[in-house]
Amino acid sequence: MKIVLGSDHAGFEMKEDLKKFLSELGHEAEDAGTFSGEQSVDYPDWGVKAASKVASGKADRGILICGTGVGMSITANKVKGVYAALCADEYTARLSREHNGANVLVLGGRTTGAALARSITKAWLDTEPEGGRHLARRHKIMSYETQSGTEGVETAGSGRVMIIEHPLIQHKLSIVRDKDTSVKDFRDLVQEIAGLMAYEISRNLPLEEIDIQTPVCGTKGFSISGKKLAVVPVLRAGLGMVEGILRIIPNAKVGHIGLYRDPDTLQPVDYYCKLPNDIGERDIFIVDPMLATGGSASAAISHVKRVGGRRITLVSLIAAPEGVEKVSGDHPEVDIFTAALDERLNDHGYIVPGLGDAGDRLYGTK
Fold it and tell me: Which one of the listed residues 27, 31, 60, 134 is annotated catalytic?
């Protein structure tokens, strides 16, 4: 495991000791500074530097140290994607991982002894996050971080990351995750979730006032003001979401993009593309149930852009942080809608906890 360490002058001595300790445990330790305990420095400078490496994926976890640990804890938690925990004993260290999924450990260089700091560090490194109610609570933290009311928040560019937490969606998503859910039920539920998500995805479509006649009298009503829409599934799993969206937006045109992920390189391979001729005039919803590495989604967006598509939204049931980072980095103007932001990818590129291979579960091919 690659672990980045950062400290101010008050935490320098402990940082040096923990670097040796991490090497003894077989971990790779990266020192982000400070590099002397003699000169007074500002802890935010070194805290942000180290925490940013965790947030960007350049380090698996981080350890920060200042005099009490309070300043470093506050600093680290200002970095999006960092969940820092100030720990003074092994019990707190374990629970910060089991319950809270902390990816940065914070210690007090002047309040915690060297031996205790080592035992806290080992307990923290040896503990993995738990699922169940703790996973649901972590999802809420991630949602608060990436969402502001119904509008979401800005990512690196102008795109938003929106986690749709409607109770019906979360209820149905839990059934979809269950490995014992039948192919028929899985397929039906994916369509239902996609349809429910379509309400949020289409929330900002502009309306124009129209005159209508009810059985009682004339009145004013509203109509979607000439907006052209296109739903573009990424084959094959994306097909499972199309019908659910078309039930809500029946006039949308449907395109198709064929991509598969090379099992060895995990890179997307292009094999088919058929889109509406007027794709450049349409608001485009690219749909794929799983945003895992982000490679296929990013390639699909690039493909649509090459043929003139401009107003693009990505829609998935479940996303991994790695996939969100990839798409937001490659296409910062693209909004991402998902029903869940899960913990991570495993060594095979599958989302954890995820739901397995969506295509296989949709069509019963495995």
Answer: 134
